[in-house]
Amino acid sequence: MPTLHDILTLLPELYLVAAVCLILLLDAFMKPAQRPQLHWISIAVLLVAIYLVVAGQPEQTATAFNGMFVRDHMAEILKVFALGLTAVVFVYARPYMIDRKLFGGEFYSLMIFAVLGVMVLVSAGNLVTIYLGLALLSLSSYALVALNRDALLPPEAAIKYFVLSALASGMLLYGMSMVYGASGMGGTPTLDLAQLHGVMAYTTAPKLLLLGLIFMLVGIGFELGVAPFHMWLPDVYHGAPTPVTTFIGAVSKLAAFGLAWRLLEVGMGDLSRYWQPMLAALATASLVLGNLVAIVQTNFKRMMAYSTISHMGYVLLGLSAATPEGYSAALFYVICYALMSAAAFGVMLVLTRAGFECEEISDFKGLNQKAPWMAFLMLLAMFSLAGVPPLFGFWAKVLVLEAAIHADMLWLAIVGIVAAFIGLYYYLYVIKVMYFDTAEEGAVVEVKADTSLRVVLSVNALALLALGLYWGPLLAWCQRAFGV
Amino acid sequence: MFTHLLSLLIWLPIVGAVPVLLAGSARPMLARWLALLITIATFVISLWLLRYDPNGSVMQMQETHVWIATWGVHFTLAVDGISVALILMTTFVGILVIGGAWKVIQNRPHQYMACMLLLEGLLIGVFCATDALVFYAFFEAVLIPMYILIGMWGGPRRVYATLKLFIYTFTGSVFMLIALLYLYQKAHTFDLATLAALPLTMKEQAWLFFGFLIAFAIKVPMVPVHTWLPDAHVEAPTGGSVWLAAVMLKIGTYGMVRFILPITPDAGAHFAWIVIVLSLVAIIYIGYVALVQEDMKKLVAYSSVAHMGFVTLGIFMAFMLVREGGNTEMASLGMQGAMVQMISHGFVSGAMFTCIGVMYDRTHTRQIKDYGGVINMMPWFGFFYVLFAMANCGLPGTSGFVGEFMVILASFSASPWIALFATFTLIIGAGYTLWLVKRVLWGPVTTEHVRHMTPMTARETWVLIGFAVAVLIIGVWPQPLVHLMDSSVAHLVQQLAVHKI
C-alpha cells in the first residue's frame, strides 16, 4: 500500500494526472465557443504544477515506492524547466493551431501527458520507471507529430519517428534486461538504479553487463539525437507541426538529459571508465556531423535539427567528463539549449500564418525591414546558439569545455571549439538573410501574433541576454543538484 | 559617481543605445541627436580619467563586482596609463564617428547609431577589464555590432567581407578561450594579476603563447592573417572603417600587452623573433602592396597593417632587449613607442578613412583613377588631407613621427639590421601616401566625378578639425601622453624581466 509519504512525494505528478483528466472531460463537455478557454486552463495547470514542484521540494533527496521514484534537486530543475517551457510552447502554439484548425483538447492533453512522462522519467529510480516515463513521453509525442493528419509530411514523420523510436526503445529494454541479468549472476537480480551502481564489483558476468551498457547507450543516443543515432531527428523536426517541433526541441531534450544521467551516473556510474570514451566518440561524431550538415540546409527546421545534433554533442562533452562539475555543466547546457531553441522556433511561429509555413531560411529575407523587433529576437537566439559572448549560449559552452578540460580531455574540448566555428557560419547566415537581404516581392513576411505570444517570446529571447549577463544563480542551482 | 567611473563609461553608451533604437526610423533626427549627446557625455565623463596619477600605483580606479561567485568570475575593472590613453581616444573618436555619419546614413539611421554606441561601450570595456573572462566577453561581443554594421550599411560585397571578418576573428579568439580555460584549471580564477603570477613550465607557456598569439595576431592583424582587413575596410561604411582602424585593431595589440607579456614572458621572449620577422614583413611587404592599390580605402587599409606592424615590432623588440641585453631603458623606449603609435594610428587612420568618406559621399567612387585635382574644388579639404597624409607617412611634427621614431631607435640598439628594415617604412610610406595625394588632390580636374564635388560642409570640417587637433597635439607635444603611460610601460617592462621557469 502506498503510504502518505509516497503520495506526497509524488504529488506534482498525481496532480498532473488529475488535471489532464479534467482537461479531457472539459474538452468533451465544453461548448465550442468556450473551448478557447482550454488554453488558459492548461497554462494554469502547468503553472500550479511548477509551484507544487518547487514548494514541495524536500531538502534531502526523497524516494517513494521503495526507491522506484526519486525526488531530488536535479529532477526539480528539469521539471521546472520542462513545465515552464511547455507552458511557453502553449503560448507560442495558439495562433498556429487556430490557423490550422488543430486547436483543441487533444493537443493540450497530449502535451501534458508528454510532460508528465518527462517528470516520471527524470525522477526514475528504477529501470522500470525509466521505461514507463519514456513510453509515456514517446507515445504522446508520436501522436503529437501526427496531429495534422491531413497534411503530407506529418504522418510520414510520425511513422519514421515511431519505427525508429520503437527500435531504440527495444535496444534500451534489451540492454536493461542484460544488466538485470548480469546483476543476478553473483547476487540478487535488481532493477533498482542505486543498487545497480555497485554491480560490477560482484557480478560474475561482467561482459554481459558491458554489453547491456552498450545497448542502453544506443537508446540514450537515440533519445538525445546524437550521431550516429540521429537519423530520425531532421525528418521529425521538419515534418511535425512547428509547435510540436518546439516541444521536441526544447522539452524532450531536458528529458533525454535526465535519462542519460539516471542511467549512466546513478545506475552505471561504476562503469564510467567504459562509457566515458564511448560518449566522447558520440560527442565528436555529433559535433562534426551536426555542424557540417547544417551548413547545407535551406530549410530552417532542418537546419535547427542538425544544430540540435551538434548541441547535444556539447551536452555529451559535459556528461563524458563524468564528474559533478561535468554533469552540472551539461545540465546548464541543456537548459540553455532548450531556451534558445524555444526562442528560435517561437520567432518562426510568429511569422507563420494560415497557408504559409515560414520554414525556409529564405522566408526570413528582409525581416529587419518589416519586423525589426522579431528580427532582433531572432538575432539574439542565433548569436546565442553560435556561442558569441555575452549571450547565454557562450557561457554554457565555456562551462562544458571547462569540464572537458578538467577531465583531461583537452582534445575533445578542441573538437568542440573547432565545431563551434564551423557552426558559426550557418547561424550567421540566418542573421545575414534577416538583416542584409531585402525582402523579395511576393515573399510576404507578416507578423501576426497575439499579445501574449509577443510578450512571452520577448521574455524568452531577452532571457538569453539577461542570463548571459548574469548566469550565476542558475549555475549555482545546477551545481547544487550534483552537490558541487 | 567616480567610484564607478569605469562602469559608467562602459554602460552609458551601451544602455544609451536602447533609447536611440527606440527613437525609431520615424524620428531619425531625434536618434542622431540622442546618439551625439550620449557620445559627448561619454567623452566628457571620460575626461575624469585624467585624474589617473602616473606616479601612483599602476592599476587605478579599481572596481570589483562579484559576477559569478560559483565560478570565481568577478566583474573587475581598472585602468593604467595605457588604458586611459586608449579610452580617451575611443571616446573622442566616438563623437567624430557619429558626427561623420550624420546625414550620410539615410537607411535606418537609428540602428546605425545604436550600433555605433554599442561598439563604443564594448571597446571601452575591453580596455578596462582586468578579469580575463570579462575581457574575452567584451573582446568577442565587439564582433556583433561590427558584423551588423558592415553587413547592413556596407558596399556591394559586404556580406562576404563581414562574414570573413567574423569567422576570422572568432576563430582566432576561440584559441584564446582554450588557453584561458587551461589557465583557469591551474589558478581557479580569471583574475589577470593572479594569472600573471602563475608559475608555468616552458611547454605550457609555449602552447598558451600561441593560443593568445593566434587570437591577437588576427585582430591586429599581422601578416599572414591580415587578409580580412582590406575586405572589411573596403566594404564597411565610413563609420565602420573608422572604428575598425582607429580602435578595433588596437584591442589586438592591447591584448598582447595584457596577456602574452605578463602570462607567458619566457615563451614570448623565446618566440619573439617570429613576431619580429612577421612585423618586418608587414612593414615592408605590405607597404609595397599598399603602393599598387587602386582603391583608396584598400590603400589605407594596407597602410594600417604596415603601421600596426610597428606596434607589434615595438612590443616584441622589448622582449628581445630585456632578455638578451638586459637593456630595460631601450626596451621601455620601444614599448613606449609602440603605445604612442597605437594612439597615433588611431587618430591618423581614423582621419584618413573619414577623408575618404567625405570624397566618397560626393562621388560614390573610391577608385584613385576617378580623382584628380580635388584641391580645386575643395581647398580646405585638401589642407586636411595633406595634413593627415603627412602624419600617415610619419612627418615630424605629426603624431605619426613620434611612435615610429621611438620604435626605430629602440630596435637600433638591439640590431641595426632590424632598424634598417624598419626604416624602410619611411620611404615606402612616403611613397604610397604622397603618390596617393598627388593622384587625388593635385593636377587639373579631369573627371566628371570631381567636377561635381562641393566644398566641405561645416559638420565635416568640424569632424576633421577634431582629428587634426589630436594629430598635431601628439605630434608637437607628446610629453603628456608619454608621461601618462610612462610608469605603466615601466611596469610592463619589469614584468618582462621576470623568469617564470
User: What order do the SSEs of chain B take from the amino end to the carboxyl end, as H and E?
Assistant: HHEEHHHHHHHHHHHHHHHHHHHHH
Compute the CA-based radius of gyration of chain B. Answer: 21 Å
The averaged pLDDT of chain A comes out at 89
What oligomeric state best describes the polypeptide chains here?
A: heterodimer
Given the C-alpha coordinates, what overall shape of chain A results?
globular
By secondary-structure content and strand pairing, the structural class of chain B works out as mainly alpha
Mean pLDDT of chain B: 89
Protein chains sharing the most extensive interface? A-B, 32 and 35 residues
Contiguous runs where pLDDT drops below 50 for at least 5 residues of chain B: none
Order of strands across the biggest sheet of chain B?
1-2
**First-last Cα distance of chain B:** 43 Å
Number of strands of chain A: 2
Point out poorly predicted stretches of chain A: none
Query: What's the arrangement of strands in the largest beta sheet of chain A?
Result: 1-2
Tell me about the largest β-sheet of chain A.
2 strands, antiparallel
Helical fraction of chain A equals over 70%
Order of helices and strands of chain A: HHHEEHHHHHHHHHHHHHHHHHH
In percent, how helical is the residue content of chain B?
A: over 70%
Question: What's the SSE blueprint?
Answer:
The complex is a heterodimer of chains A (484) and B (501).
Chain A: H1 4-9, H2 11-29, H3 37-55, E1 62-64, E2 69-71, H4 73-99, H5 105-122, H6 127-145, H7 153-184, H8 193-196, H9 199-202, H10 206-224, H11 232-239, H12 242-267, H13 272-295, H14 300-320, H15 324-351, H16 367-370, H17 372-386, H18 392-406, H19 410-435, H20 451-469, H21 472-481
Antiparallel strand pairs in A: 1-2
Helix pairs in contact in A: 2-3, 2-5, 3-4, 3-5, 4-5, 4-12, 4-15, 4-20, 4-21, 5-6, 5-12, 6-7, 6-12, 7-10, 7-11, 10-12, 10-13, 11-12, 11-14, 12-14, 12-15, 13-14, 13-19, 14-15, 14-18, 14-19, 15-17, 15-18, 15-20, 15-21, 17-19, 17-20, 18-19, 18-20
Chain B: H1 5-23, H2 28-46, E1 60-68, E2 73-79, H3 81-100, H4 109-128, H5 132-141, H6 143-153, H7 158-187, H8 192-197, H9 202-219, H10 228-235, H11 238-248, H12 250-263, H13 265-270, H14 272-291, H15 296-325, H16 328-363, H17 374-377, H18 379-392, H19 399-414, H20 416-440, H21 448-451, H22 458-476, H23 479-497
Antiparallel strand pairs in B: 1-2
Helix pairs in contact in B: 1-2, 1-4, 2-3, 2-4, 3-4, 3-11, 3-16, 3-22, 3-23, 4-5, 4-6, 4-11, 5-7, 6-7, 7-9, 7-10, 9-12, 10-15, 11-16, 12-15, 14-15, 14-20, 15-16, 15-19, 15-20, 16-18, 16-19, 16-22, 16-23, 18-20, 18-22, 19-20, 19-22
